[in-house]
Amino acid sequence: MSSILLGCIADDFTGATDLANNLVRTGMRVVQTVGVPDESLTESADAVVVSLKSRTIAPNQAVQQSLAALAWLRGQGAKQIYFKYCSTFDSTEQGNIGPVTDALMQALGAEFTIATPAFPDAGRTVYQGYLFVGNVLLNESGMQDHPLTPMRDPNLVRVLKPQTAHSVGLVDYRATTNSAAAVSEQFEQLRRQGVGIAIVDAVGNDDLLRIGQAAADLELVTGGSGLAIGLPANFGIEPNAQAAKLPEPTGQCAIVSGSCSRATQAQVANFIEQGGTAIAMDPVALSQDSSRLEHYRQQALSALAVGPVLVYSTTSPEQLVKVQAALGAMQAGEMVEKWIASIACSLVQAGVGQLIVAGGETSGAVVQALGVEQLRIGAQIDPGVPWCYGYAKLQTRSIPLHISLKSGNFGAVDFFTKAFKVLVP
Ligand SMILES: Nc1ncnc2c1ncn2[C@@H]1O[C@H](COP(=O)(O)OP(=O)(O)O)[C@@H](O)[C@H]1O
Ligand SMILES: O=C(O)[C@@H](O)C(=O)COP(=O)(O)O
Prior knowledge:
Elements: E1 6-10, H1 13-25, E2 30-34, E3 47-51, H2 59-75, E4 80-84, H3 97-108, E5 113-116, E6 124-127, E7 130-133, E8 136-137, H4 156-160, E9 167-171, H5 173-176, H6 180-192, E10 195-200, H7 205-214, E11 220-223, E12 252-257, H8 262-273, E13 277-280, H9 283-288, H10 291-303, E14 309-312, H11 317-327, H12 329-349, E15 352-358, H13 360-370, E16 374-382, E17 385-394, E18 397-406, H14 415-423
Parallel strand pairs: 1-3, 1-4, 2-3, 4-11, 5-10, 5-11, 9-10, 12-14, 12-15, 13-14, 15-18
Antiparallel strand pairs: 2-16, 6-7, 7-8, 16-17, 17-18
Helix pairs in contact: 2-3, 6-7, 10-12, 11-12, 12-13
Adenosine-5'-diphosphate is lined by residues 146-148, 258-261, 264, 283, 313, 315, 320, 323-324, 332-333, 336-337, 359-362, 408.
């Protein structure tokens, strides 16, 4: 097996498919693994994205898992390492963006790296170090109400500083809108000043291409998935339509959603408006009476024959606050993830062959419960969200499955209906 070029570590599962999607679109052959594989890669690939579920776990565990992923990727010959986190810089006060970046830098002997969450195709831009989502600042975008990582400061230099032992700097738009040479020059200047991590402005894809070119010699790059569009060219790779071909879809269609992001809320509402069958979970009632889970499961299984069924815990910020007050934020998150994962497994066992999962944490829980080990990346549905293909390993069965892991804030309002149409051959 030939060596891989780019080794990627993603802090959640939707983020991993988002990155894999951008790499495939720029011509790389990509394998996405679920967790760190036990064995060497068995197929040829230009890049491997190791999906972790490390965004909101304790920093020391996130570091440990990321270093294990790094060791495996280096074992596959990776020439450059890419740490992928959310384009909305999702982190708690402790991390995990800072601690994981520090640990990877140390392990790689890297004195300098970049932090580039910008993803203009999905409306995430960075200007003077301030992160915008669409036309509003990060802290006005709904991310201030995120269940696990509320983002209340849009200034990324300020957000990153308390999370890292390195000095944090900024490469601003004057360099990134100018030329790759100007960006390289800024990298050098900051490095000389003792800066270890530079937030990098980017408002358009051309900026990302220049940043990518300037980053060719960095051992480690970090960011959202947008940065990926500028990297394959450094390895002489060009776009190639064949890279996104998947087998034909089979089975019934279902959606499970534990995402409380604004975009998902609108997508759930739209699915219901269009007449789709939707089953709402009530976490507080469920925590008091576990038999409700069986009730939801039976409802979902009976509805499958009629058309795509949606099972969701998606709720408004006001409701979320109430549930979290009753159950605790992290505890509620874990319980809901477990319940949704359990229903997803039943749906797949009952014949669902096309499954959409909304929410990064939720996707991690579902993919792990399904026993999926590896995913191939197919056509993009909306920016940042492709269809993927893999095998669920449930009891003794290996079940082929098309699965789409939708980041909370990604996707058009009709995503839950449109996605299945994209898959039709
Ligand atoms: N109704 C709810 N009450 C409390 N927590 C919830 C509820 N619905 C979902 N959650 C939790 O909120 C978190 C959502 O995170 P995630 O799946 O990454 O989606 P997103 O980031 O789009 O909101 C998960 O841990 C999920 O279990
Ligand atoms: O970079 C992004 O925005 C996504 O790839 C991502 O990581 C989103 O996470 P969730 O909103 O938790 O799905």
